[in-house]
Amino acid sequence: MAIYLEMPNLNKDFPFRTLVNDGNILTTPHWHREIELIYVTKGKISLGVDDVPYKLSQGEIAFISSGVIHYVLASPGSERQVYQFDLSYFTALNKENIDVMEIFSKLQPVSTDWSKQTETEIQKLLESIDKEMSTSEPGYQFAVKAAIYRLITILIREIPKKERKAKKINPTNNEEVLERLDGIFRYVEKYYKEPISLQKIADISGYSTFYFTKFFKKNTGKTFLTFLNDYRIDKAKWLLINSDYPVSEIISETGFESDKTFYRLFKKTMKMPPLDYRNKMKL
Description:
This protein has helices spanning 87-90, 100-104, 116-135, 140-158, 175-191, 198-205, 209-220, 224-242, 247-253, 259-270, 274-281; strands spanning 16-22, 27-30, 35-42, 44-49, 52-57, 61-64, 70-72, 79-85. By secondary structure, it is an alpha+beta fold. It folds into two domains: 16-158, Jelly Rolls, CATH 2.60.120.10; 175-281, Arc Repressor Mutant, subunit A. The longest helix is centred in the middle third of the chain and has 20 residues, at 116-135.
């Protein structure tokens, strides 16, 4: 799995899955097409959605829309249930011309901002899904579908909405495009500490620099240089939170050619210097 693009292996005939992560499992910043909910079943977790940090306790829920970048920090002693599903499968029969994706992009992402009644109802739905998936009795897929349809209805009707400028990658349904992007992201993940020129990454992808530039901007919403810098900044943020490395070493570890460039981009992205970010975010 590339750090920036996750491609869950969902059954194409029933694109839904649930899994349990304990507090020692952390997820670095990534995005995927699928809708995701995280239900804290034990302890507390720290996570980020669109670069906004949150802390959730047992019983609380996070909602991540398609294409939204998110991560979960290591939270020892905790446990979380993760639910992922392909929204297009469950909204294929939508005849109301409701733009569900547009609505979902505006939802308040954590249940601490929802009504207690809404949070409780979604808890019960997720728990009923867990039970059906674990027992797999005859008709369990119908039961799970029914729960997801009810979940979508609640999300549309009951979750508070606000205009958010999400740090978001435009989702696409084209598997070939996703696989090509995944190859690019994997290359960046492996070699981000080294200089990566536009010509080099275009050659790796099999495109001319002109076509690669258009392809990448169309499918990610940003230029490759912006993506590479954002990726390196995300790596730097991770090291600031999860290590005691001095900033000078982090700059070297994340592939920036100059201290000046790093400080300028970090402050532009996070609205604060690196050490202030470390002090604010470190557990």
